[in-house]
Specification:
The complex is a heterodimer of chains A (292) and B (232).
Chain A (H helix, E strand, L loop, with lengths): L1 H24 L1 H12 L8 E6 L1 H5 L2 H13 L2 E6 L2 H9 L5 E4 L2 H9 L3 E17 L12 H10 L4 E3 L5 H12 L9 E3 L4 H11 L2 E5 H7 L6 E5 L6 E9 L9 H12 L1 H9 L2 H4 L5 E2 L3
Parallel strand pairs in A: 1-2, 1-3, 5-6, 5-7
Antiparallel strand pairs in A: 3-9, 4-7, 4-8, 4-9, 4-10
Chain B lengths: L1 H16 L2 H34 L5 H11 L4 H12 L14 H25 L3 H9 L4 H11 L1 H17 L2 H7 L9 H11 L2 H30 L2
The chains are: A alpha/beta (292), B mainly alpha (232).
Amino acid sequence: MFEKKGLFLMIVTLVVALLFTGCNNAEEPAAAPSEAPVEVSVEGSEDIILATTTSTRDSGLLDVLVPLFEEETGYMVKTIAVGTGAALEMGENGEADVLMTHAPASEQVLVDGGVAIDYTLLMHNDFVFLGPVDDPAGLSDIAVASEGLAAIEETESLFMSRGDNSGTNKKELSLWSEAGVTPEGAWYQETGSGMGDTLNIAAEKGAYTMTDRATYLNLMDNLTALSILLEKDPALNNIYHVMAINPEQFDKVNYEGAQAWIAFLVREDVQDLIGEYGVDRFGQPLFFPDAN
Amino acid sequence: MELLFNGIKEGIRLILQGDPEILEVTLLTIRISGLATLLSVLVGIPLGAVLAVKSFFGKRFLISLFNTGMGMPPTVAGLWVSVFLWRYGPFGSLGIMYTPAAMLIAQFIIACPLVVAFSVASIQNIKPQIHEQIKALGATRLQYFLLLVREAKLSLMAAVIAGFGAVISEVGASMMVGGNIKGYSRVLTTATVMEVSKGNFEVAIALGTLLLMLTYLVTLLLTWVQQKEASR
């Protein structure tokens, strides 16, 4: 009887121990069975983690470029589409191999710190200001972005900001500071969401907002309540760069893969592909290649 | 309303046509969530049984933790798993961040407390006389455990259904640790979120419809097993 009790206690302890490694960390016990059926690649060097902004994925551009690259090189690209802020943070922690983002000022910090290398100009498009058709702030008569924002503040017209530290959000905030306005008050609302969601919210509420043109063109059919009121100010350029994470700072990054991805993107035929993307659907390109 | 109708129609069309991409996403969804549920059951029911019948110091506290775990937000589970699995995290050398394996782990963490907590409740619900009877018959520990499970099987089935329901519907954790990578770690919920953000509401509703039908089918199966037992 005592022996049995001892054995039982041992089993209980084991089960509890298993659960605690199981339920809290859960690495080995839970990971092992999945490996057979779901093909987890063991060699990290075959994968490239690409941290990027949502606009490159939501526009569909990556759905064209990634399969082409994978077929040519045999790499597998793991596209993690997050805001530019999160993508840069991933780079800074060595959790991504290559970044594709659109916030040059924030990117420069990584380049200066030696975290990002092979910093390469890739493409651009532009930001536009959307607003309700009745345009209470009179944005359609203004050509300069910062003046437009000042008019929105003056009339206290509802403005929807991403508020998510994304590239678009960073750009918007820099324009406010250029306008000498601190955006706060009931008229200035932060959605904390991606571009698509923010556009939908702005359309529902009849608010002003700033978006990249590619996302707007993609969603235009759902956004009949909004129209482009201010555009083509040079300050509204939206510039995309691609960069690798420095293997000397992070030994686990796949630098070769990152180099291959960058070399692919700047190749002339791929740049042409970028320039043509969207023409068939929207009658105009979504991105303008800049690498050559 | 028209959008909803078209979306549902589109969903049915997608199923009937067997679009290969949708099929792949659906199969992965079933595979990950099914496996996560299975693992949680294998761990959760024995643990729940032990927690239910043994008395020891800190028992109530431990049970309260599992009860709290039932409300574990998937994003929080996802964040924790991320921190552990990142390349430079404690388990980074495994290299399983942004893989289906990572999603499985996160879903296991979401489902496990549910199964444990439900198991504790259903086994404690068994009449004390039955415990006495089983013991009086001289059952071994394993036989005791199996008889308890048999006695509580209807409510334990509810534990399985709850666990499966939690993981098949979660999106936060799968998005965070799986990355929603096309053809690799994309499941029905993460695909739905992405289609909404792309503005493809119709496709999103179609995927949602598909997910609901899938959940219904699995739950129907489990309920059928449960009710068949009940009517014996």
